[in-house]
Amino acid sequence: MTEIKKEEITKYIVISSDKVLPADAAMKIYESEFPVTVKETCFGLIVTGFREDVMAVVEKIRQLDKNHIFIKDRGFPAGDARRCRASRGGGPRPGFHFLREEVEMLPAIGAALDELEANKPLKKETKEKSRLKVSDLEKIIEAELSR
Amino acid sequence: MAKVFIYPINSLILSDLVERFGHKPLTMMNQIREKVTSISLDSPPINITSEDPKAGLKYAAIEVPAGVRGRMSLIGPLIEETEAAIIVENPPTNFGCVGCNRTNELTKYLVRSKNVPILEVKYPESEEEARDFVSKIAEFLESLPKEKSEEDEKAIEEKTTEMEDKK
Known about the structure:
The complex is a heterodimer.
Chain A: E1 8-15, H1 22-32, E2 37-40, E3 44-50, H2 51-62, E4 69-74, H3 85-88, H4 96-117, H5 134-145
Antiparallel strand pairs in A: 1-3, 1-4, 2-3
Chain B: E1 3-7, H1 12-20, E2 24-26, H2 28-37, H3 51-56, H4 66-81, E3 84-89, H5 101-112, E4 118-122, H6 127-143, H7 150-166
Parallel strand pairs in B: 1-2, 1-3, 3-4
């Protein structure tokens, strides 16, 4: 069984961004040369290391796309035999189902955070039907093309 | 910085939002970490011992199932630390540590009876609801005091005394 020192922590970095991929975030961490263990997953990354290092890494990654990258603590270290699928005979690990449900809501939460940051009122007033403005159409096209 | 209890207690969205707005989320993950990474192993693989249901007796009666008491031995200390709480109703799935509905009922009851500021919201299912969800949480978290906690103050004091000693 893995024994780790008490001050070591593990964090999930869940990426729901159009601009940043888990691989990009992992490369950023390798470049930063912090002594942390990184595991790339389908939804993002798992980072294990000393508290100060992990907090610094996590903050750096969050700044890549701060409203669309979400961070959560994890109890077990990355690759721990008690949770790793390889040693448990496959299937999703315990706790993944709830994470997967939450990951589906992240684009909407990210968009709400974007609006909050832009100081727009979050409750949209229902407007009467009107023609789409050219500037709004341009924004929609740019957003689609940047995907 | 307020210590904010969140329900579901392992929620990614809630713990991220609480940290984002400068507070400390009280989560199950930290409790689990202490259990699974402590060097002295009492009962491998996950260190839940017969002492844990006994610790849970503080929060639930003896005739309550051991699973509830075991869970309360981890959640109970968090409730004691709570300075504010966000409770989300109808979360989509409850698995693992939050898989016991009786524990969840007891947890919510104890938090509600603690006389701390509580925000109760519904889990969002659409973009419109997500907007409402985030705005309510942001408003609530911004209304909480952002003063430094006692632990932070102690850490700062220790640092300043160290600096003075070095001089």
